[in-house]
Amino acid sequence: MGNALYGVLTAVMAMSLLLMLILVFGNVVMRYVFNSGIMISEEVARMTFVWLIFIGSVLAFRAKQHLAVNMLMVRLPVKQQKVIHILRQLLILAVLWLLIDGGWAQTIIGLSTVTPVAGVPIAVFSGAVWFCATAMALMILADLYVAIRAPATPGNASKFMTSYDYVEDI
């Protein structure tokens, strides 16, 4: 299921990028050729860009492509790697909880305010934060479940430093 969601999010990112390209390029052509423009294009492109960034963050988080320094971790015994991994994931989960809570509060607040041209609630922007933090938190919870259950043996050491693909084994 994780790979299917990964594919769907990748497709959504591609479609978002295509929509942004069409809207912005179309607006430029309309302004220079026809001396008019697409009023809604700026707002939709901005919303699409925000969602593109946060979906990309979720995909990068899943693939562990965010910045990490593991030079100390690889030198530790496997049991200590496991303990540090679990503590690190709990710390990340705590920060993600702050984003989930704040993102949800901002989404509720943004429901009553709309964009000037499109009339779309501003909650669309903070909803992207909430979605991103929630998706990452779910991955962390699945990772913690696997990490706690996995014995601290040299064969499992890679589970404490590689991508979330092994979560599929649950």
Describe the structure in brief.
This is TRAP transporter small permease protein. By secondary structure, the chain is mostly helical.
Characterise the protein shown here.
The protein is mainly alpha-helical and 170 residues long. It has one domain. 67% of the residues lie in helices and 0% in strands. It has four helices and no strands. It is elongated. The N and C termini lie close together (11 Å).
- Assembly type of the shown chains? single chain
Uncertain segments are 163-170
Largest sheet: none
Average pLDDT score: 84
In what range is the share of β-strand residues?
Answer: under 5%
Structural class: mainly alpha
Tally of extended strands? Answer: 0
Topology order in helix (H) and strand (E) letters? HHHH
Helix share, percent: 55-70%
* Tally of structural domains: 1
Based on CA inertia axes, which overall geometry fits? elongated
The end-to-end span amounts to 11 Å
Q: Radius of gyration from the CA trace? A: 20 Å
How many separate helices? 4
